[in-house]
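Entry type: protein chain
Record version: 2
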Amino acid sequence: MNPELIAGPVDPRRAKLAGRAAEQIVADVVELGWPVGHVLGSETELLERYGVSRAVLREAIRLVEHQRVARMRRGTGGGLVVDEPDVDAVIGPAVIYLLRVGANLDEIFDTRIVLEELVAEIASQRAGEADIEQIRATLEQESTGTISNYRLLHEQLAQMTANPILELFVETFSRLTDFHFRDPAALPAEIDDEVHRAHDRIARAILANNPGLARERMRQHLRAEAEFIRSQPTTVQHLDPAVALAGALGDKRGEALARQIFTEILTSGAAPGFFIGSEATLMEQHDASRAVVREAIRILEYHQVAITRRGPGGGLFVTEPDISALADIISIYLRRRGVKVRHIIQLRTGLELAVVERAAEALRTGGRDARVVEDALRAEAEHGMALAFGHGEDFHTMLGSLTGNRALQLVHRVTMRLGWLFFNHLAADDPRVRNLSESLPDTAGPAHQGIADALIAGDTELAVMRMRAHMIETVDGRG
């Protein structure tokens, strides 16, 4: 293997030894272009490359196997083989995070509407002759009166955007909606006709290349769906962990034990800092071997569900949910899917407008304290944009938190995280991007202040207008 193709060392201050080794493996796979089936090396070669002990390496390998980044193949010609991640490796952790933070059905639907309005707009701008046949075939099948997949058209429209971020999140939040409502018997006889009519109206606007009408019809359709689902007696606002976690952590013994412990944490309402147990206690309670318990612990730590403390009084403790950890998992998957800067910009602009509108409403109605806006501006001024973002104290992250929508915050944070990853990568190679990075406080700072002034004054329209101008300026600056 050419050592020049391997990424530089990961910051040693991050995570534990196994976590750092796993991060380095992921970085290497990405730098190599994600060659599925390629052997990264034998265990002996990997031990030398990463400079860790055999025990640490094996834990790191279990992590990248869990992420579906690579898997260990035994026997002749074996070694750590680059794998193909699938969407379930991302949706599972997303479900786990949203369970931890208590996101409810209203938040899921609000986020779906933001995302799918944007899908309708972009799809209508991109729709061409090649799309007509597929869309018409779906509508023709629906017109027979029996719809086998209510989400099919939505998935096809997301694919038409050719934006892997939108495709991922549309599928994620569609599945989450199904977790809240799974009662086919409750569907009225006329539901298929109603859905078909709504889909037909959306499709006609998209194939006519009318983005405004497509957005409006998509919004109407999803709002009607939300109202119907909320009205059903079997609908739940908060997910049942037993339903949502089925298969989310895999079926191996360590994964099954991690799922069981996590379910117990959720159902008991254990707060951060709660003592789950020592390794020996967990072995006894769950009749599991040391190896199985350690694998379960590593998975729980990987998902930021729990943390191990060493020494007297140590053991496994519940920890605070960490959106950054999930953002990294999603970023790994999207980088494999070939996400580009244009995809991030496309989604980011629409997201920021939706976020600032919701943040303005929260401040206007007194649901949030305006001092957090000033705190974010102060953090950026004192520490710089990048460091403030790293600590979740920057202006845009603050706006996301003001929405009170934890699902929307997830999409928002992941998109920003991807943006920073690409920005830093480009800055390392392009002097123009480096210059832009150095001038960022001079341009973004005043823009943030202007948006903040409008928010504090309660002027939603002005805040949205200034955010739109800020995003256009940011895109032009990077272009």
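Comment: The beta strands are 39-41, 70-73, 79-82, 275-277, 306-309, 315-318.
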